[in-house]
Write a structure and sequence with these properties.
It comes from Taxus chinensis. Pfam families: Glyco_hydro_2, Glyco_hydro_2_C, Glyco_hydro_2_N2, Ig_GlcNase, Mannosidase_ig. By secondary structure, this protein is mainly β.
């Protein structure tokens, strides 16, 4: 049994606390109402505690971070803090208790009921203390922890830099905390009890660090589950044990199937530990775990228990386990590293990840949103960058559930560990053995997760030679995982396990170790700086032969400014000024951001001398809202083109790409698909489109239409429908392909898109691509482009904003607990210029679209925010109750122009009477099945919207668009009490 200690903590600065640890946990326990004690944040950091108590301004707002004392100036003592809590822990007779810390930065002294224990240093290691004889069974237990910052927190040079002065690299800790080109420094360097604290109770024998491994033979038909665990007998008597392993899987309709239930005998001498390996469990064709986009993420529940004779159940352990085999090798055709899962090549399209929150305010709920967002973008890999965290089990749990392969790096970066400016120390941390202890403990913590695919020594640098050699040895592959082919059958006897040591006895043995992110099939494979670029690009350049030379790019980045509401939420009004556009002598535009944007690492949408300003392509922005709206257009195009360019050369030139980066751990203004509050940029949906498993796209360099099939099945009898649309809604060009078959894992050019070469081609036009199943006309992929003629721009779209295209929205709403599930349909009511019978409805993949039904509903409206008065066209109220679900369809028609409904996007707000400047009424996070979309005349698009709200919040769904003439449609959703 485990009891988390995640509430009731108080904290105080060490220099201001007069009592010793022994006194605090015996005769002089502190009171939260007495200075210097305050409410403590555990798990969390000192800075998080100070922020929680409003003793510092929000470091993520404006320039507030500059007013917070940096540890380099204050000294380490300033951020050395006591954390204290009381807890009750009734313990049964003959039970044993452990006090567990899953992560402390950087070192600590622990006092429990007057007893002291010094914890060793290192941010990434667990600590377990036997407190059986210390706990009070019938009264409060007093726990005090004195936490010391990293030994070498370093200084931040005036000019900033990657990892500050690099001193943090002398410790085994996160390196981003000294600041980077995408992150401001963290003033306390994340000092604190930053991960879970718990008390666990067992009988005389405890289970530690089980290791689960599956091995495959006979083309995945024959599978063995191996398990090894450490059993520790803390009693003074020998223990006769019965150990049991049970494997079960949830089927449909809540049925659980027990696949194995095996028991074995084990004797554990008093006061010793035994590493015990179970007899392998045989499975025939188990359901497999697949990455996102290739299949289901089936997870089996593995339970291990130990019963002690004369005592009963002494301890238990449980984990969700996925049967899958991951291989990778350097592809001779491309030079890139090629990953295979269960024998299927996986074209990697994913992103780089730092961590969820720069102040380590980590939560399971936030992790779930983060990882689900990555899955919704159709990504299949996340790279955990070496300057951030060894991610937590909760992160990996959701990667398991959503099918995201994880590349996990250890705590080495090129800038801090051997490169950078000035050149940093190449010898890594001062204590190499400490690094290895943290690495080995991290492997034990994470190795059972199906999503974990790769261990990497560091980012753009490998660890020092002795550490690198040790990691290669510790993480060597078991012979079973060196097989050239999954189908190789080396065994024909149930006694096959005698041929080799059981793979579960290895530290890992199943995953490859690569010494650094630029070696062995990544970038040029030799460790040189051959990743990137990280700035704005012309969209067509991503498709060109000379854009990137190597087969797998671990980092390529670009822009990513969020929506205007986020700017207002994170900066004072004087920082809402958009960049100045300076025209240079060479005709390029230089963007000059205000100081707050610059501090938040804004990256321009131009690159003078190479790329003309991509926002100005739509006309010079006039306001913050105008700037951010046009930036979203660029975000969408930029990231869609990036991934489509890579996918266009799938297996012929590339094996994968990881975008730098998917999100910011603070309120940054670059390189992100969603902001720190979980509101998505348009780049999120451009990426989502480009990375769908079956996709139709336009090669922007050749203007050939291409079909992408990343699945393992042949696409048979499909057709491509191409239609060009002018701004006012006419369609001068249409082409429909003959029946096509696309082999699995193949990008197939279909035909050239001819419209730009025709007479009277418009300077700006829209292109709609649809991939259809010819047998039933279902749309397998839909892709919408806005394009201009060579040498042109998008400025004709500016005049288009004054029009108002008629839009009908309808919805069905279900309220489940506090979660709203909205099935929305959006219909462009403009007259369809195509001939009768040529439907443009976007049917869902299951062909379940229903015709729009118009209901007349008489309901009472809730007030709309004052700032939206005069702007919102109310549709109706949808009334739901917890006890009885009520579904209604609602519709509204507005508009006096025909044409393409361009760049529509939903938002969800909390309805309120008034908003102060900078106040944010958005409800976040929201999951949309699509957003930032466009509809040609007559087209219908279903959108699913899911979000959670508190009981007293009235949500309002708002639809805005480029040509709604400044009048967003609003749908208010109220709740009956």
């Amino acid at each position: 049994m485990k009891m988390k200690l995640d509430s009731g903590w108080i904290a105080g600065r060490w220099k201001e606390v007069s009592n010793s640890g022994e006194e605090l946990t015996t005769t002089h326990p502190p009171s939260p109402s007495t200075k210097p004690w305050m409410e403590g944040l555990v798990p969390g950091t000192v800075l998080g505690t100070l922020l929680k108590n409003k003793l510092i301004p929000d470091p993520f707002y404006g320039l507030n971070n500059e007013s917070i004392l940096d540890i380099a100036d204050s000294g380490r003592e300033y951020y050395t803090f006591w954390f204290f809590t009381r807890f009750q822990a009734p313990m049964s007779a003959n039970a044993h208790a452990s006090l567990n810390f899953r992560g402390i930065n950087y070192s600590a002294e622990v006092y429990l009921n007057g007893h002291r224990k010094v914890l060793p240093k290192g941010m990434f290691r667990r600590h377990t203390l036997d407190v059986t004889d210390i706990l009070h069974n019938d009264e409060d237990n007093l726990l005090a922890v004195l936490v010391h910052p990293p030994d070498h927190p370093g200084h931040i040079p005036i000019e900033g830099g990657q990892g500050g002065d690099h001193d943090i690299g002398q410790d085994v800790a996160t390196q981003y905390v000294e600041g980077w080109d995408w992150m401001a420094p963290i003033r306390d360097r994340n000092t604190g009890i930053w991960d879970e604290v718990s008390i666990s109770f067992t009988g005389p024998v405890k289970i530690s660090d089980p290791h689960l491994v599956s091995s495959f033979f006979d083309d995945l038909k024959r599978v063995y589950l191996h398990a090894t665990a450490e059993f520790t007998n803390a009693s003074s008597l020998a223990a006769d044990c019965t150990v049991k392993v049970q494997v079960s899987v949830d089927l449909e309709d809540g049925v659980c199937l027990v696949e194995h239930d095996e028991t074995q005998k084990l004797a554990v001498p008093a006061g010793t530990s035994v590493l015990y390996t179970f007899q392998p469990l045989f499975f025939y064709k188990p359901s497999l775990w697949w990455p996102n986009g290739l299949g289901k993420q089936v997870l089996y529940k593995v339970d291990i228990t130990v019963d002690v004779k004369g005592y009963g159940e002494s301890d238990s352990w449980s984990h969700l386990f996925g049967f899958r085999k991951i291989d990778s090798h350097i592809d001779p055709a491309t030079g890139g590293r090629l990953f295979k899962v269960n024998g299927e090549p996986v074209f990697i399209r994913g992103g780089n990840w730092i961590l969820s929150d720069g102040l380590l305010r980590l939560s399971e709920k936030r992790y779930q949103t983060d990882i689900k967002f990555h899955a919704e973008m159709n990504f299949n890999m996340i790279r955990c960058w070496g300057g951030g965290l060894a991610e937590r089990p909760e992160f990996y749990h959701y990667c398991d559930l959503y099918g995201l392969l994880v590349w996990q790096e250890f705590w080495i970066t090129g800038d801090v560990d051997g490169r950078g400016a000035p050149v940093s120390n190449p010898n890594g941390p001062l204590d190499h053995e400490l690094f290895l202890e943290c690495a080995r403990d991290t492997v034990k913590l994470l190795r059972n997760h199906a999503s974990l695919a790769l261990w990497v020594g560091g980012n753009e640098q490998h660890p020092p030679e002795d550490i690198n050699t040790a990691l290669k040895s510790d993480l060597q592959l078991h012979p079973f995982f060196k097989l050239p082919e999954i189908g190789t059958n080396l065994i024909d006897s149930p006694l096959w396990t005698k041929a080799y040591e059981d793979p579960s006895r290895y530290l890992d043995g199943t995953r490859l170790y690569i010494q650094g992110s630029l070696w062995d099939g990544f970038a040029d494979g030799e460790g040189d700086f051959t990743d990137g670029p990280y700035e704005i690009q012309y969209p067509e350049d991503f498709f060109k032969d000379d854009f990137y030379k190597y087969g797998f790019n671990p980092e390529v980045g670009s822009v990513g400014i969020p929506v205007a509401a986020t700017i207002r939420r994170t900066m004072p009004p004087e920082a809402w000024q958009i960049p100045l556009f300076q025209t240079l002598s060479n005709g390029y535009i230089n963007e000059v951001p205000n100081p707050v944007w610059d501090y938040h690492k804004y990256i321009p949408y131009s690159k003078p001398g190479k790329v003309h300003d991509q926002i100005e392509m739509y006309g010079e922005p006039k306001s913050l809202d105008d700037f951010c709206e046009k930036a979203q257009l660029v975000n969408y195009i930029q990231y869609r083109a990036l991934l489509e360019g890579w996918t266009s050369r799938m297996w012929t030139k590339y094996t994968g790409v990881l975008i730098w980066k998917t999100q910011n751990p603070w309120t940054g203004l670059r390189g992100q698909f969603y902001d720190h509050f979980h509101d998505q940029t348009a780049g999120f949906y451009g990426t989502r489109s480009a990375a769908e498993p079956i996709h139709v796209q336009l090669n922007l360099a050749t203007y050939f239409v291409e079909i992408v099939n990343t699945t393992s099945s042949t696409l048979s009898d499909v057709t491509v429908d191409v239609s060009v649309w002018e701004l006012e809604g006419s369609s001068p060009y249409r082409k429909h392909s003959k029946s096509i078959s696309v082999p699995p894992k193949k990008t197939l050019p279909v035909f050239e898109m001819e419209y730009p070469k025709t007479n009277n081609a418009k300077p700006v036009y829209f292109l709609l691509l649809k991939l259809l199943d010819k047998s039933n006309s279902n749309i397998l992929s839909r892709n919408f482009y806005w394009l201009h003629l060579p040498g042109g721009d998008y400025k004709p779209l500016e005049a288009y904003r004054s029009q108002k295209v008629p839009i009908r929205t309808s919805a069905q709403v279900a309220l489940v607990g506090g979660t709203y599930k909205v099935e929305m349909k959006v219909h462009n009511l403009s007259k369809n210029s195509l001939s009768e019978g040529q439907s443009l409805n976007f049917e869902d993949r299951n062909n379940q679209q229903e015709p729009i039904r118009i209901d007349n509903i008489d309901t009472t409206q809730e007030p709309v925010p004052e700032k939206m008065d005069g702007l919102l066209s109310r549709i109706s109220s949808l009334v739901c109750t917890r006890k009885k679900q009520k579904q209604m369809q609602v519709t509204e028609t507005k508009g006096d122009h025909s044409g393409v409904a361009f760049f529509l996007h939903f938002s969800v707000f909390a309805a309120t009477k008034s908003l102060k400047p900078g106040e944010d009424a958005r409800i976040l996070p929201v999951h949309y099945s699509d957003n930032y979309f466009s509809l040609v005349p007559g087209e219908v698009l279903p959108i699913d919207i899911t979000f959670e709200v508190s009981k007293n919040t009235v949500p309002q769904i708002v639809l805005q668009g480029w040509n709604t003439n400044g009048h967003p449609l609003a749908m208010q959703v109220t709740r009956l009490n």
